[in-house]
Amino acid sequence: MFKAVFAACLVLAALLTGACKSSTGPSADELEGTWTATKAEFVLKSDTSTKVDIVDEGSTVTLVLGSSTFTLTTDDTRPEETSLSGTWSKTTDTLTLAPTGADYTIVFDMTLSGSTLTLEGGGVMFDFTSTETFEDAELNMVLTKS
Question: Which of 8, 89, 90, 139 has a Cα at 20 to 30 A from 28?
């Protein structure tokens, strides 16, 4: 009886070990390239019902990821910053953008499915009223690789 229980425990342990393999997320090679946003939604942190998708408003948003550098460019219909560049890094499920000369980073929850990159929850400042009054916001983007 003991041997049967012990054998069953070993089989269970082997199955659980295989099911619990750690994932490394997308590789840097998979992320490198030019990504075009199909959605670039800013959500006001103090009132999450306030949202602005600048792609829906006619803007073009492009994220270029090099081997360690990035450029985020917005051909914007609003008077916002049009280009941001610096370095980037990743973990299993986050993408971090560190703009050159800035004292902040933008950290996104990241998922990659085929040629679609989803970045969510990036802490940014955004002018929801186009009056140069910038407020704490989250940036959520869906991008496709060109």
Answer: 139
